[in-house]
């Protein structure tokens, strides 16, 4: 079917409402590619992540049910080790899932922006080189952010050790500064992926572009996060209902209830898989929205589309190439 509406340009100055429109129009136009891509890349991960999450929740509820026998000091080493492994697995799979979501969303946006045919007829195989390249970049950035977090934790620890109660003031300053910096840093991944740039320059550029548009970025993130959370809450509702039922019967110490059946456990697992997938699907709206916010700010600041037009002006168009080869066509 022929596409009749205008192409959604990445680099274009937009208002706040225009950024929302661009985000949802992009998903609407490329819904099949977006949904199938997420299923293909993330569903296998969610199958394992759901099992790890339910294992962790089951152990926590089991310890609560037998609080007299199980406590942090009396619980068997096997249960504590299993809880620790499950929790680490949840964090690991969530990190991998976030990286896959970022890579898929921005690969789609990048390919769409650079091709006149948009994503028409494109498959995951076509996007595979871009997704792999972006995964490597996200992995490097994740390790860098982990290093920064460890450094900040070490600084806070030294302050507490050296200054005692006085350190609370400096810790509060560090916390507030971190919260403020988080807003412009929201542009980091679009900058780092869409531009040929390294991690530290990307961080500097996100601060350079983000602070002048601090409140517009903050407003966009708040609204898009609320909308994403509404979608996520609908998808997660079955799991929370089953979880609350399990908690209720566990606290009431009723034995032989239906929450202990194999069928209930299997349904609880399926809803956890659905919830995990829903989290990634809803997060993709925020990621793509931030991509268009970045494109608007970058265009306003650096006129990137004008530079691209100048670069492409010197390249012969398809019609010019046909004219040049006219003699060969006769």
Strand content: under 5%
Number of helical regions = 12
Oligomerization category of the chains in this entry:
single chain
Head-to-tail CA distance between termini: 34 Å
- Note poorly predicted spans: 68-74, 317-324, 326-330
Q: What is the alpha-carbon Rg in Å?
A: 25 Å
Strand element count: 0
The outline comes out as globular
Judged by helices, strands and strand pairing, the structural class is: mainly alpha
Whole-number average pLDDT?
A: 85
Biggest sheet details: none
Helix-strand string = HHHHHHHHHHHH
State the helicity in percent bands.
over 70%
Describe this structure in words.
The protein is built from twelve helices and no strands. The chain is mostly helical. The protein is globular, with a radius of gyration of 25 Å. Helices cover 80% and strands 0% of the residues.
List keywords for this structure.
disordered C terminus; 12 helices; 330 residues; mainly alpha
What's the SSE blueprint?
Elements: H1 16-29, H2 31-65, H3 77-114, H4 124-163, H5 167-185, H6 188-194, H7 199-210, H8 214-251, H9 262-302, H10 304-313, H11 318-324, H12 326-329
Helix pairs in contact: 1-9, 2-3, 2-9, 3-4, 3-9, 4-5, 5-7, 6-7, 8-9
Entry summary:
With 330 residues, this protein is mainly alpha-helical. It has helices spanning 16-29, 31-65, 77-114, 124-163, 167-185, 188-194, 199-210, 214-251, 262-302, 304-313, 318-324, 326-329. Residues 68-74, 317-324 and 326-330 have low confidence and may be disordered.
